[in-house]
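Subject: mismatched residue count in predicted assembly?

I count 161 residues in my input, but I want to confirm that the predicted structure covers every chain. Input:
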Amino acid sequence: MMAWISELWGSGTAAIEPASLRDAPRLAQLHGESFHRGWGEGEFEAMLAERNTLVHRLRMGRKIIGFAVSRIGADEAEILSIAVAASHRGRGLSRDLLLTHLGHLAGRGVRTVFLEVEENNQPARRLYERAGFGVAGRRERYYRQANGEQLNALLMRRDLS
Ligand SMILES: CC(C)(COP(=O)(O)OP(=O)(O)OC[C@H]1O[C@@H](n2cnc3c(N)ncnc32)[C@H](O)[C@@H]1OP(=O)(O)O)[C@@H](O)C(=O)NCCC(=O)NCCS
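Triage response: the counts match. Full output below for your records.
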């Protein structure tokens, strides 16, 4: 009840934790709501079971409201996906999620992190820029929308020290 009340008033504290296999259905639901090509429950289960994939969940009370996923290869990692439920966006929660996720990547020995972001995705670009990522390349017509429109991708990079 208390958690519900504090969330209602926007003062609930968010927790960022490693996700578990049991979270797969909710993570797939969140992903589907946030991206044009959603990942299914099975895809999340596979990623959660893989040792080189790191998945964090963002939890508010008993509700999972976001996640971050990356894949590690030697001392590099790629952020594959990050999302916050539409109902909880615009409160800076993604920043805590991303910075905690990066901290864990550093703890696993990762020195460089890459990601791809759609050029017009302003909230995501802002998030990454403020978290210290810089543009490392541009890929023309990289994403194809359901309506056939093709959008450019930016490749971003950040070194962890
Ligand atoms: C990207 C995403 C995770 C950001 O989550 P969030 O918790 O809402 O992020 P924040 O509240 O910290 O906002 C991030 C920044 O974007 C800015 N922003 C938010 N909406 C914006 C908009 N419509 N236009 C421009 N900037 C915007 C915010 O002001 C903030 O910048 P600031 O720190 O300079 O104030 C969230 O929007 C999301 O889940 N989007 C769908 C999935 C997605 O696109 N993921 C990234 C794929 S690469």
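The mean pLDDT is 92. Marking this ticket as 'not a bug'.
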